[in-house]
Structure formats: C-alpha cells, structure tokens
Specification:
Length: 97
C-alpha cells in the first residue's frame, strides 16, 4: 500500500476548505472511484487542512493527486489557495478497527 498527505495552508487555504466542506458529496464521487482506494480522509486544521489518501499501489496515489489538483482548479480556483505540501510513501502499518 501507498499513502499521500496533502497539506494546504497559507493564503486561501481556509476558503478552500470551506468550499470542500460544502461540496463533500462531489469529493466523495471524485475520490471514491479511484482504483485501489483503501481510504480517503479530509480534515481541517488551524491554518487550512489536509487530506490523507491510502491506495493499494502508487498508481492509485498518483491518480488521487491528479484528481485533487483538477477538482480544485475547476471548483475552487477562486480561493487563491497555494499548491499543497505533498508527502507520499509506502505504508508501514495500516490499522482499521
């Protein structure tokens, strides 16, 4: 499995997460159909927010990054949010309860 964390902060990040929250159903539809998706989480932070995506392989992670970028450009470009800080890599431990 692979994971990617996309952290949005700074200019426009809070406004971006306002849009994401209002359009949660769109996010579910966009991200939920990624082949090999294990989990997707979108969360707010004090300075914006972040997403955590886990997929069966790196191809799914790459697709998720592109889908997120495209969705934001189409639906939330007016927020002026800067590109996220992206961290990705292979999963060592993944717990589900």
């Amino acid at each position: 499995m692979h994971t990617v964390v996309r952290k949005y902060s700074g200019k426009g990040a809070n406004e971006l997460f306002d849009v994401l929250e209002k359009r949660a159903a769109d996010i579910d539809e966009t991200m939920g159909t990624i082949k090999g998706l294990v989990s997707y989480t979108l969360a707010r932070s004090d300075d914006g927010g972040f997403s955590v995506t886990v997929c069966q392989d790196k191809a799914g992670i790459d697709e998720s990054v592109q889908r997120a970028k495209d969705w934001i450009a189409r639906n939330a470009g007016s927020t002026g949010a800067t590109a996220p800080e992206v961290t990705e890599g292979p999963v060592i431990v993944h717990l589900k309860r």
